[in-house]
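@channel anyone free to eyeball this complex?
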Amino acid sequence: SYELTQPPSVSVSPGQTASITCSADKLGDKYASWYQQKPGQSPVLVIYQDTKRPSGIPERFSGSNSGNTATLTISGTQPMDEADYYCQAWDSSTAVFGGGTKLTVL
Amino acid sequence: QVQLVQSGAEVKKPGASVKVSCKASGYTFTSYDIYWVRQATGQGLEWMGWMNPKNYNTDYTQKFQGRVTMTRNTSISTAYMELSSLRSEDTAVYYCARGGSDRLAADRNWFDSWGQGTLVTVSS
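replying in thread with the prediction:
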């Protein structure tokens, strides 16, 4: 089965750039989405179709996808960005989620 | 604005069934696919399947085939997910989510709005 691999944790200082990767075989041939989930809350879409931001998502969130890796980049990271982040892609009509990355802002 | 409101927490015994509802508002219910995703405590997101509220097409991930049924009542803009033969491993928060585009196939879409989640606890 298709698996999306994310680092379990990423740490970043406030104001710096955070990058969260999501890796899988030929992931660049598929569209990737990213979801932010804060403790006790439902997931929120932050990036879809690799690079698009839904309305209401700050410009500091951006995405890319090429080769075997999709990347979520948060520029000028703020304390409010501390959360779990999940990548997602479709494979053989099945939605696959990565294991999630806990972003710590300290 | 788009809103998905789910039914309340449930406690079930092993072997029983649970039916979770997801009431949609703020958009045309039949125009967007509904997806179901679950999350065990402290774990990641797990996709269960989707349903097209207009034509009633469904697709379930193989893990839940034979145990899950997704239905809807268009007159009240509500989707349902029923899971049967419950076991302790089914204890999780269950989310409904809406497909982000009304023009894409269900297996090309993203999930742009989520319900608040329904905790289902399976315990004897």
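from a first look: Chain B touches chain A at residues 35, 37, 44-47, 59, 61-62, 95, 97, 100, 107-108, 110-117 (CB under 8 Å).
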